[in-house]
Amino acid sequence: MEKILIIEDEDRILMGLEDDLRFEGYDVASAKDGLQGLTMAKEKAYDLIILDLMLPKLNGFEVCKQLRQAGIATPILMLTAKSQEVDKVLGLELGADDYVTKPFSPRELLARVKALLRRTQSNLSTSALFHFGDFEIDFKKYEARKSGRQFHLTALEFDLLRLFIQHPNEVLSRDFILDKIWGEEVYVNNRTVDTHVAQLRKKIEDDPANPKYIVGVRGVGYKFVPTI
Q1: Collapsed DSSP state (helix, strand, coil) of residue 57
Q2: Residue 217's Cα: distance from chain center in Å?
């Protein structure tokens, strides 16, 4: 049974999430402020963390940041009441794997939860270890290194990079990426793909504005070029 930690201070939303997730068979724990949630996440292993952005004592950004700094790689689904792109991008930069903007439907939230859990628990169809350029990516251990130095990728970024590696020099449409990474049952717009690709580029490209590994193809999607 997968264990999910919800860090949310709004009683109505928290109770709804707890009921929906338990009905789906998940083992659910909860915290109502960021400090308590951070402590719980450090003390016990969870399969997924649902993290609200606006929290008392410690906001979601800081919780996410401290978890990643502590080496905790548990997938994080961030909830935000704000629609500004900057908040979503900042969350991803700090290590969140995905985000849902309030108000959201229970069906959408559950679909995102299942997609995250499915990705992190799926059997790898690529080699456990892959090299390109100065990079070494270990998909079994979820570790990434550049020139021998380890750096952080989220679980979603590992899956996105794995998808590109599985299709070298092949143009992948945004719709194809959406179906493979988020699943057909999850509604995510094409702009979400662009946002996540942009975050991945910041981590693996020397010049993200002029990428050499993940190349954009105007009006279509992206192509992974493993060697230059």
Answers
A1: coil
A2: 24
Average pLDDT value for the chain? 85
Question: What pLDDT is recorded for position 85?
Answer: 60
DSSP E strands, 125-207? 129-132, 135-138, 143-146, 149-151, 171-173
Alpha-carbon distance values, 66 to 79, 82, 199 (Å): 17, 22, 19
- Comparing CA positions, the residue from 1, 20, 187, 28 lying closest to residue 111 is 187
pLDDT in tens, 30-71: 999 999 999 999 888 888 999 999 899 999 999 998 988 887
Domain annotation for the chain: domains and CATH numbers: 3-121 (3.40.50.2300), 129-224 (1.10.10.10)
Separation between Cα atoms, residue 150 and residue 174, nearest integer Å: 29
- pLDDT for res 143: 85
